[in-house]
Amino acid sequence: MSLSTILGIESSCDDTAAAILCNGKILANITATQTVHAQYGGVVPELASRAHQSNIIPVIEMALAKAHITMDELSAVAVTQGPGLMGSLLVGLNVAKGLCIAKDLPLIGVNHLQAHIAALFIDRDVSLPMLCLLVSGGHTQIVYVTTPMTMEIIGSTCDDAAGEAFDKGAKLMGLPYPGGPFIDQHAKNGNPLAFGFPDSQTKEFDFSFSGIKTSLLYFLQKHIASDPLFLETHLPDVCASYQRQIIMSLLKRFEKAIQRFKPVSIGLTGGVSANSELRQKFLVLEQKYAITAIIPELEFCTDNAAMVAMAGYHQYLNRDFTSLCALPYNRVKQS
Ligand code: KG4
Ligand code: ZN
User: Which residue, 39, 74, 199, 271, has most beta carbons within 10 Å?
Assistant: First the structure.
């Protein structure tokens, strides 16, 4: 088989990233995380596009230098085409198109959610079919994966994503954005059984996280009204209890799906898969159901370009190329 060297580019939200993948092996994975949004408590789309514009060329150059590759050695450019923020996607897609035109390379438009799933295939052979729990800042899905290119969404959130529940909950507790890692840290010193938060009623494999965020709001209002220092004294317990309920909601549906679909392996991916308690509880399922559990390295969990390059590699092998006239999109559909 001839050598395939793929440049992956990711710019769907607030991370500008580039990676080089050679015959399925990651040679470089560079991410510039935008810090400008922290002061606003969430991603500001216009600022994100501008930061992508300044970061994208240096990030690509760093990835090429780290991999000791020149543009002339590339076989294709894979780029996140959607879903994501329109202005942010446009920056990555247009840079990718420019490189393809300049170097006469095929363009590979990648679905961001399929890329999160492709992260599970980095540096390992995966036994299929795999049931995958995809938990990010924008999406929460259970996906049944039969080949690296063929997958079906069998459950998804009706409202907020799990990452949003972490981020919005953290905001209510006065923690910085993005709040997931802060809740994770504080929860380590707290009692997960200190307080109870409700789960929402949903169709069997679907999720709902807007209710838990609202119940946290009322819970905090009630306790702070009678004790203004409530959060100062109980922050770890609130974080641990809130996190426990989000994880229970995720795993309850996921376990039901394992029992129904009987996969050979299970995978956890997306930014929330960086959560230490979720990782630990997910691995318990390995013994419980006697199946292989896969969780990517931390650098491949949150948004990164290695996963885009990996998804692009699978498409490259199938000659699944994208027109240079292609536009970014916001539909979720996969496969
Ligand atoms: O996949 P990702 O990087 O971006 C999207 O595609 O959305 O996910 C970002 C999300 C944020 O909501 C962030 O708070 C969450 O992942 N996250 C975590 C942790 N690290 C990142 N949530 C809980 N615990 C963590 N350790
Ligand atoms: Zn993502």
Answer: 271
